[in-house]
């Protein structure tokens, strides 16, 4: 396990040192990780908690790292003495990986001494932002097709970690396999792949290349047919090899298309395969595909069974970042917790104060109907009607009578000790699938999704308004 303690911004360290000098290092504070709304990010799939837990569990400064910090000539020995004893001693609450979350909802909450809570900001944002972004993109892609999707993005990822953990996140978002062998080994997920154009081009003829591949992998024969001419040579040569395999008692897996008009080529190739007696041969497709292209191909009746999607998935194009932030929500002053919020002339950028959680409200039909961000001290009686209202357009109200509520957050660390058992990735994937099914398609659709209600509880709304009034008076 890598020690990522030094994976932080310099200003975290300078603030920690300043807190120490001001006698504030042990003052407890609450910070929230959440993201703000952006086009294409009306909802997100939470991911990265496992790596965040590994990071927290391994926090410590080595002597080598301390020597490097000494070379900066910014800190004194009192600071380095504190770093030598550094361990995380606070609490962490988080939503489960695979949970659907919405803008402003806490994805992860840290309650810890300022000295500790400040250090972990950068790494937690790095981990949660990246994997949540890729998992969300994967969901947007996979929900546009009934066919399986394999993540093929390692070669286009922004570095090894982005490739490895992007593969993990894509599985949480709905992909069924990855081309990334290391990810398959690390996370125990299915890997998939065929051969490249270079295999075909390494032989005198396409047919010879296909035959040799089939001889080596008779039970897993999937042939790339677009090296020279898809319909005039690729598919006919594949069928010849399939006939030879069939004569030996094997059934071919199928063909892969990697270029050209995928809708047209897949429909003609499907007819050719069916007419040749291979209705069960799969048609795989790859080649710079995203959810918009998938939607278009689906509307054109493309005959594609499995998709290999790389660049636009692993880079989450066109969204370069989730935009998650880490904001102070409360601080303990002389034994009393005081709420904190960031003010802005833009209402959407006002932060929510206090120590919070999020409840998901389910209607009588069992489907998710709204989310309620609330103070952790608040209690709700599900036997009584519940009225919620829009936090900005307060005249918009909804009353629930037949409903149930679920707290989306679980405690992960209690006074520095991990108390949440991390599930294996296969369980996370299954949970993510169930989470997706809780929402009507209108909330998840690719274009103009219906706005899902995310409201504030009475207690949180009142607290926020009181801080706004106090700020105006000040």
Automatic annotation (TrEMBL):
Keywords: Glycosyltransferase, Ligase, Phosphoprotein, Pyridine nucleotide biosynthesis, Transferase
SUPFAM superfamilies (alphabetical): Nicotinate/Quinolinate PRTase C-terminal domain-like (SSF51690), Nicotinate/Quinolinate PRTase N-terminal domain-like (SSF54675)
Top enzyme class: ligase
Signal peptide residues on this chain, from the entry's feature table: none
Pfam hit, one: NAPRTase
Any one of the GO BP annotations: NAD+ biosynthetic process via the salvage pathway
Domain Nicotinate phosphoribosyltransferase C-terminal span(s) in chain numbering: 356-464
Reactions listed under catalytic activity: 5-phospho-alpha-D-ribose 1-diphosphate + nicotinate + ATP + H2O = nicotinate beta-D-ribonucleotide + ADP + phosphate + diphosphate
Entry GO CC: cytosol
Domain Nicotinate/nicotinamide phosphoribosyltransferase: 149-339
EC annotation from Swiss-Prot or TrEMBL: 6.3.4.21
Keyword Disulfide bond: no
Post-translational modifications: Transiently phosphorylated on a His residue during the reaction cycle. Phosphorylation strongly increases the affinity for substrates and increases the rate of nicotinate D-ribonucleotide production. Dephosphorylation regenerates the low-affinity form of the enzyme, leading to product release.
Pathway of action: Cofactor biosynthesis; NAD(+) biosynthesis; nicotinate D-ribonucleotide from nicotinate: step 1/1
Domain (Nicotinate phosphoribosyltransferase N-terminal): residue spans on this chain: 6-129
A GO term, aspect molecular function: nicotinate phosphoribosyltransferase activity
Annotated function: Catalyzes the first step in the biosynthesis of NAD from nicotinic acid, the ATP-dependent synthesis of beta-nicotinate D-ribonucleotide from nicotinate and 5-phospho-D-ribose 1-phosphate.
Family: Belongs to the NAPRTase family.
Name assigned to this protein: Nicotinate phosphoribosyltransferase
């Amino acid at each position: 396990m890598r020690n990522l303690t030094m994976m932080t911004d310099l200003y975290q360290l300078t603030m920690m040192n300043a807190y120490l000098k001001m006698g504030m290092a042990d003052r407890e504070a609450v910070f929230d990780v959440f993201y703000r709304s952006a086009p294409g990010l009306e909802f997100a799939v939470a991911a990265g908690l496992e790596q965040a837990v590994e990071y927290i569990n391994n926090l410590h400064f080595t002597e080598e790292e301390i020597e490097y910090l000494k070379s900066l000539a910014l800190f004194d020995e009192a600071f380095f003495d504190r770093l030598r004893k550094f361990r995380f001693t606070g609490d962490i609450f988080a939503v489960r990986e695979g949970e659907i979350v919405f803008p402003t909802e806490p994805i992860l909450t840290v309650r810890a001494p300022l000295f500790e809570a400040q250090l972990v900001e950068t790494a937690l944002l790095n981990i949660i932002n990246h994997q949540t972004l890729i998992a969300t993109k994967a969901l947007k892609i996979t929900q546009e097709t009934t066919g399986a999707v394999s993540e093929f993005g390692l070669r286009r990822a922004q570095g090894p970690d982005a490739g490895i953990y992007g593969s993990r996140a894509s599985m949480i978002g709905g992909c069924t396999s990855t081309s990334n062998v290391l990810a398959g080994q690390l996370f125990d997920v299915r890997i998939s792949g065929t051969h490249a154009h270079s295999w075909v081009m390494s032989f005198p003829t396409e047919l010879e290349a296909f035959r040799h591949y089939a001889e080596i992998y008779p039970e897993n024969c999937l042939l790339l047919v677009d090296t020279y001419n898809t319909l005039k040579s690729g598919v006919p040569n594949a069928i010849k090899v399939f006939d030879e395999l069939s004569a030996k008692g094997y059934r071919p897996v199928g063909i892969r298309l990697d270029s050209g008009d995928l809708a047209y080529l897949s429909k003609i190739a499907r007819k050719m395969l069916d007419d040749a007696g291979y209705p069960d041969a799969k048609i795989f497709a790859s080649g710079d595909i995203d959810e918009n292209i998938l939607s278009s191909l689906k509307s054109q009746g493309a005959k594609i069974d499995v998709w290999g999607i790389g660049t636009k998935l692993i880079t989450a194009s066109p969204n370069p970042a989730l935009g998650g932030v880490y904001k102070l929500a409360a601080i303990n002053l002389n034994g009393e917790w005081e709420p904190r919020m960031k003010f802005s002339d833009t209402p959407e950028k006002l932060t929510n104060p206090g120590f919070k959680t999020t409840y998901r409200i389910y209607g009588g039909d069992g489907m998710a109907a709204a989310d309620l961000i609330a103070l952790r001290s608040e209690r709700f009686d599900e036997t009584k009607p519940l009225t919620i209202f829009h936090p900005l357009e307060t005249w918009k109200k909804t009353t629930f009578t037949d409903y149930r509520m679920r707290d989306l957050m679980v405690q992960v660390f209690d006074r520095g000790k991990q108390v949440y058992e991390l599930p294996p990735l296969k369980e996370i994937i299954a949970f993510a699938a169930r989470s997706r099914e809780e929402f009507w398609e209108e909330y998840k659709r690719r274009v103009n999704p219906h706005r899902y209600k995310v409201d504030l509880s009475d207690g949180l709304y009142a607290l926020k308004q009181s801080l706004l009034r106090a700020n105006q008076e000040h």
